[in-house]
Amino acid sequence: MNGPRRVRPEIRDTLPGDSPDARASRRDLRLINWTLGTRSWFETKLRPRYRAREHALEVGAGTGELGRALHSFIPDLAGLDLCNRPGDWPETARWFQTDILGFPDLARFPLVFGSLFSHHFDTAQLEQIGTKLGRHARVIVANEPLRARRIARGFSLLCPLIRAHPVTRHDGRISIAAGFERDELPFLLRLDPSSWKWQVRETWLGAYRMVAEKQP
User: What is the maximum span of the chain, computed from C-alpha positions, in angstroms?
Assistant: First the structure.
């Protein structure tokens, strides 16, 4: 067992987007995502599940790098985040600068995906989000930190090798402690097993990946 989830604030969420610390932490995050193959994994899972003219929402879209990469085959894409619309976000893609907990239009998006998003929320908040998604979504795809002691130890060893910024070192430990294991995320989202079928994969590099599909 790896202990219970602990959700705590991350420094990156308090930094101005153009601050040197935020830019350095984003550099580290890009390197980590490249190592984990995050973008290619999302493309592999989303491409066969996307339906033409279907509205898709990236939650926690951040700087927009993932959404931009997927926009080539998901033209009806929107991003949601607390930060401003990125300057290079696709012109035809919408952007909602808001908190998902108060977002009134979630029902308009049958396909919802996000990377390093769900671990920011506690049990009650995940249930609130999952209740909405369970009613209206058709596909949910998530990439999150794997909560495991070996991953925490591995992250501590990796940071000096990539010269990780102190913000990255702090937030990475917080993220892993707030991550998921086994079927934890779909259960915290309260997805009904009689209506939803999901697959969860834990990678040896520390990614927790869930693909959930509502059954016809």
Answer: 48
Total domains in the fold of the chain: 1
With respect to residue 2, please indicate whether it lies within any of the assigned structural domains: no
pLDDT at 68: 96
Closest among 157, 199, 140, 150 to 179, alpha carbons compared: 150
In a domain, 3, yes or no: no
Other C-beta atoms closer than 10 Å to the C-beta of 206 total 23
**pLDDT, tens digit (0-9, with 9 covering 90-100), for 152-208:** 999 999 999 999 999 999 999 999 999 999 999 999 999 999 999 999 999 999 999
Task: Quick: pLDDT tens for 109-130.
Answer: 999 999 999 999 999 999 999 9
Buried b (16+ CB within 10 A) or exposed e, 114-150: bbbbbbbbeeebbebbbebbbeebbbbbbbbbbbbee
Element (H, E) at 31: helix 20-36
CATH code: domain of residue 141:
3.40.50.150
Residues of the domain holding 118: 13-214
Whether 5 maps to a domain, the answer reads no
**Residue 114 three-state SS:** strand
